[in-house]
Amino acid sequence: MRNRISSLLIFLVGGSLFSLPAAAQIYIPGTPAQKEAAEKAKPPKYDPRDFSGIWRGVGGGLDKSWLLGGAPAPPMTKWAQELFNARKPSMPYADPSRKTIPALGNDPLADCDPLGYPRNLGDPPGAGGQTFQFVQSPTELVQIFDGGHRIREIWTDGRKIPDDVDPRWYGYATAHWEGDSLIVDSTGYDERAWLDGNGMPHSEEMKLHEVFRHPDAMTLEVTMTIDDPKAYTKTWVGNKQTYRLTLPKESTVLYEYYCVPSEEEKFNQGVRNPAGGR
Question: What is the pTM of this model?
Answer without folding.
Answer: 0.86
